[in-house]
Amino acid sequence: MPFFNESILHPAVFFLTGIPGLETSHTWISIPFCCLYAIAISGNGMILFVIVTESSLHEPMYYFLSMLSFTDLGLCLSTLVTMLGIFWFNAREISFDACIGQMFFIHGFTFMESSVLLAMAFDRFIAICNPLKYAMILTNPRIIKVGFAIIIRGTTALVPLLLLLKHLSFCRSHVLHHSYCFHPDVMKLSCTDTRINSAFGLAIVISTAGLDSVLILLSYVLIIRSVLGIASPEERKKAFGTCVSHISAVAIFYIPMISLSLVHRFGKHAPPFVHTLTANVYLLIPPVMNPIIYSVKTKQIRKAVIKVFLSKLI
After folding, report:
1. What Å distances lie between residue 177 and 14, 224, 278, CA to CA?
2. Crossing angle of helices 60-89 and 96-129, rounded to 10°
3. Is the Cβ–Cβ distance between 176 and 15 less than 8 Å?
4. Block means of pLDDT (10 residues each) for the chain, length 314 residues?
């Protein structure tokens, strides 16, 4: 394994980390990661393809699902090169500008996914609580506007955050604790005052993922209240059934995020590989699981995917 004297390098260079303590097994460890990336890319690509090509899926619910697949695909591709580069070629070095770029895409797609999940919760709320006005409220022009708003919201706040990062000095070790550039991880290496960066970063997280989670919870409180008012048990079950996929997507997005935050906050004495594995799970599990959940739980998506496979076989 090459020797790096990280302490004397120019601040514009960082070193990423694979799985600490298991460097000699990186080639074997890369196999399950390759499988996860293949599932995520092919699964989300398939979801996007069937929604675009199948006219029966040109409805608000599936438009929002296509946005979810797009953000999952972007999140997955943002870490693909650096992670597999470490496992296959021990390519740990990354320039500061490249690190900034990767952070922009990772955090941008993360915030966009949170916004998409909120939009999907609103879609379920309207569909269940006010079904007669569903088509009138969620028109195609409004969905397009929501899509643009999600992109703008997910990216604009990151620009000043990353510009603040460029003004920091890095005179400590340049070794990051993840297989990709993560804002709190990079900030910890600075030898200058980072209180403004920390406060601004926390404000962005609270105003995006934090606010979204509260609004999603509120929407489901209203949905549950509305569903419990339905007299027929069958209708009640059907209404809850339309929310299962979305609830699962929310869980697999927020649980790894909370776990990573807890590890960063309280896991100072945990083995180094715990931080790295938690960070990798945080970014890989949602893109892998979302296509599986929606293909299994959503009948229309399942039928469309099967139709595509059968047409290819024929």
Report:
1. 11, 42, 11
2. 150
3. yes
4. 42 83 86 94 95 92 96 95 91 92 95 96 94 93 96 91 87 83 88 89 92 96 89 82 91 90 75 81 92 91 88 74
